[in-house]
Every structure is written in structure tokens, then in C-alpha cells.
Automatic annotation (TrEMBL):
This is Iron-sulfur cluster assembly accessory protein. It comes from Natronolimnobius baerhuensis. Residues 16-120 form the Core domain. It comes from the Archaea. PANTHER family: IRON-SULFUR CLUSTER ASSEMBLY 2 HOMOLOG, MITOCHONDRIAL. Residues 1-23 are annotated as: Disordered. Gene3D superfamilies: HesB-like domain. InterPro entries: ATAP, ATAP_core_dom, FeS_cluster_insertion_CS, HesB-like_dom_sf. GO terms for biological process: iron-sulfur cluster assembly.
Length: 124
């Protein structure tokens, strides 16, 4: 059984969102810490208006996907992406970084043409 899959369409028709093993492990631990069922619940990755460059990433835990979400499963973590956000983040990789200056989730987005100085917002 593969640890990576896409629900809601074939891999050929759905743009891929990848999740590193570290990011999936961190998110699963947080989901479980919230008492959420990891077989149904997941991490919602979305784009919202905001920040000095115009768009910013958002993440939250949801008990279940919305009807029109694309659902990715990587390393036993379910990731939900709504159609409006998909056009901005298709092809992205969700990673977890820990270091001396910062610790947290980071989106590596190939669609970004510019970011603000702090790296919290972007333009495509």
C-alpha cells in the first residue's frame, strides 16, 4: 500500500501537493493531541488575502473534508485543499522546519513570483 495518494480524482488530473515525512509526523502528533480521529480529520491548507505581498497561507485542522476539496494522503496525514486555494498552491511541498531562529510548517511554492521580506506573504 502506498503512503501517498490523491482522493477526488486521478493523479493525472489533480495537481500534486506533497507533504514531507517530518511535516506529516508533526501534524499527526498535533491532531492526536487535539483528540481528533486521524483516519477522518486532516490538515486544511489554504490561501487567503492578506500580508504585505497580497496572499498568505493558512492552516487549520478540520474534522472532515468539504465536498469539493481535493484530499491528499501523505505519510498517513490527510490534507484538504479547496478549489480556490488550489490554483495558488498546486505543486507545493509542505515541510516542517526546526532551527535556531524558527520552528514550524513551511510551504515551498513553485508558483510564487515574489515574497514579502518576512516570508509570510506572497504573490503568484
Amino acid at each position: 500500500m502506498s503512503t501517498d495518494s490523491v482522493d477526488g480524482g486521478t493523479a493525472e488530473t489533480q495537481p500534486e501537493i506533497e507533504v514531507t515525512e517530518d511535516a506529516a509526523a508533526q501534524a499527526r502528533d498535533l491532531l492526536e493531541g487535539e483528540g481528533m480521529d486521524t483516519s477522518e480529520a486532516g490538515l486544511r491548507l489554504f490561501v487567503q488575502q492578506g500580508g504585505c505581498a497580497g496572499l498568505s497561507y493558512g492552516m487549520r485542522f478540520d474534522d472532515a473534508p468539504d465536498e469539493d476539496d481535493t484530499i491528499y494522503t501523505h505519510h498517513e496525514l490527510r490534507v484538504f485543499v479547496d478549489p480556490a486555494s488550489m490554483k495558488y498552491i498546486e505543486g507545493s511541498i509542505l515541510d516542517y522546519e526546526s532551527g535556531l531562529q524558527a520552528e514550524g510548517f513551511h510551504v515551498e511554492n513553485p508558483n510564487v513570483v515574489s515574497e514579502c521580506g518576512c516570508g509570510e506573504s506572497f504573490r503568484t
